[in-house]
User: Which sequence fits this backbone?
């Protein structure tokens, strides 16, 4: 018990806290999607960049499949397009489905896996932790870009610090 | 030794890896500052947002002082303005100074501190890890916004995945 306790106390961040941290970010990204007018979500962009819809499809392609691959060891295909019929409701439905899948597969990741090497989606070499941090950082990066789109559209984005 | 080894193997991320991860992000932010034309860095913005210079001053106000507070226990004042004379070179000099300070003070943080509670800058309640993650996430968020500024200016930003 002594050693288990000290392991927990000396963790920078526990697996459970990292999941909560990410799902907090994912909740904020969901509110950012909600803040967009339907049409602008699928059509608006600045400087030749992708629409926020396109970025969100990338995030959907990475998050749940990435965690499934880490949990199961089965290489997942990176699919950055979904059939959304230009409906935010469809994207939000897929977002919520991904939220559940992430929670389910996360519970199957063993604590000793985070430091192990992985070639995620059969392509990107790193550790399990660095892959997950990439998923989160990439989401923050694109959501930050969506904040500029919203401001340019005259819409106030959700508070960054509210999770 | 057994227990120390297993502690390290079961860490999601070690303190040393978290520092390297953050300094990798800070290197990317530095290259993003470099990519801006001098004048646009201090004057350009979209949708009534702050200039990237203003955002970078916020990042400078948070990073080194925040880590100093965590390492020493001395509450730091949150100062989000610096005397830059509209010179990117001055900002980059402060950035590099902060890089060294972060490395110096990071080495003084004890492993068991990350899970402890802190009121950073005497204002924001959280744990040490959640405060540090906020510093990093906030930097990624604002740098993502700077990418839109650069694209709108017709400038290609540095690759997000290069650290």
Assistant:
């Amino acid at each position: 018990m002594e050693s288990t306790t000290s392991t927990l106390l000396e963790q920078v961040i526990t697996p459970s806290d990292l999941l909560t941290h990410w799902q907090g970010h994912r909740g904020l990204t969901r509110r950012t999607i909600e803040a967009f007018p339907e049409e602008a979500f699928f059509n608006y962009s600045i400087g030749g960049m992708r629409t926020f819809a396109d970025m969100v499809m990338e995030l959907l392609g990475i998050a749940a499949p990435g965690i499934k691959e880490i949990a199961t060891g089965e290489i997942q295909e990176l699919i950055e397009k979904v059939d959304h019929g230009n409906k935010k409701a469809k994207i939000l439905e897929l977002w919520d489905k991904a939220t559940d899948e992430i929670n389910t597969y996360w519970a199957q990741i063993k604590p000793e896996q985070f430091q192990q090497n992985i070639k995620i989606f059969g392509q990107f070499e790193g550790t399990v932790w660095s892959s997950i941090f990439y998923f989160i950082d990439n989401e923050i990066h694109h959501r930050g870009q969506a904040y500029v789109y919203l401001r340019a559209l005259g819409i106030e984005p959700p508070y960054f610090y509210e999770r």
